Amino acid sequence: MIKINYYHSLIFFNICILLSAFEFLRDNNHLIISLFLILSLGISHGALDHIKGKKLLRILNYRSNIIFYILYILIGVIVILLWLLFPKILLLTFLIIASYHFGKEDSEFISRRSNLDLLYLFKGSIVVTAPLLFHKNETLNIFNNLNFDISQSFFILNEYLYIFITISFLANFVISINKQIDVKSLLLMDFASIMLLNYFLSPILAFAIYFCFLHSIRHSFKLSNELNKNNFIKGLKEFLIKALPLTILTAFLFLISLFFIKNYYILDNAISKVIFIGLASLTFPHILLEYLIEKNE
């Protein structure tokens, strides 16, 4: 898996360099493209949660699978309701949890030691801090659209952002201590790729490309390997077949939500809300499920 992920990071790094050369990608948010990527490649990496849920129920000696579906959907609905009631608290919580999630799953093939949790948070925080550094006004506008105004916070001053990014950079080295050079090179390429994307592209497009082509694909590789440890290609094919139905269903629900929300907001703002609130409603139960399986296996 390290070899597969190394070549994946190398290809992704070169794609990021290539994308930075296209001038037209810098001049627009390309929200439609971002939404399409997230609804196809992005959400597919969580499309086997129903299988993991059944696995967790077996571990906990529950026979009825409907319990998992009810709780999973209920958590997602609660997240949406809480976001509407307490947007500042929910978005801040989401950014912290998402940073930890990105840092952990992007480097989970290296080590799954629990004492690295803080390092995972620092590593994944680059996804949040880089757009604030390179495109501060655009990023703050996105936060404002989500009812989260941090324009007066001292944390968004460039001096602090440079410190956060440096800590994220160093976290990669600490995570890869005593690991082979391929692992160190892989993490360095991932860090450089995220920086390149956020320097040259708009925040949402940069996030969509990272989320879909680095984070989601890497997690999909992990799931494919779990499905078939002896033949990665067969495992990948099995993953794609099993992930397709739930991916289509989730994408359909996102589009239905967009159809209603655009009646109250301009299209760009409606898409931003659907992307981030929708991802939050999926991320919280997804991370909780991963945590419970890890703790109970």
Can you walk through the features of this model?
- With 297 residues, the protein is an all-alpha fold.
- It has one domain (2-15, 30-296).
- The chain contains 13 helices and no strands.
- It has helices spanning 2-19, 31-44, 49-59, 66-85, 87-105, 117-124, 126-134, 136-145, 158-175, 181-200, 203-227, 232-261, 267-296.
- The longest helix has 30 residues, at 232-261.
- It is globular and about 50 Å long.
- The model has no long low-confidence stretch (mean pLDDT 86).
Which properties best describe this structure?
mainly alpha, globular
Please tally the helical runs, counting DSSP H or I stretches of 4 or more residues: 13
Cα-to-Cα separation, first versus last residue? 21 Å
For this structure, the quaternary state is single chain
Give me the count of strands: 0
Bin the helical content. Answer: over 70%
* Overall mean confidence score, pLDDT: 86
Biggest sheet details: none
Q: Which regions have little confidence, pLDDT < 50, spanning 5+ residues?
A: none
What are the SSEs and their pairings?
Layout (H helix, E strand, L loop, with lengths): L1 H18 L11 H14 L4 H11 L6 H20 L1 H19 L11 H8 L1 H9 L1 H10 L12 H18 L5 H20 L2 H25 L4 H30 L5 H30 L1
Entry summary:
The chain has helices spanning 2-19, 31-44, 49-59, 66-85, 87-105, 117-124, 126-134, 136-145, 158-175, 181-200, 203-227, 232-261, 267-296. With 297 residues, it is an all-alpha fold.
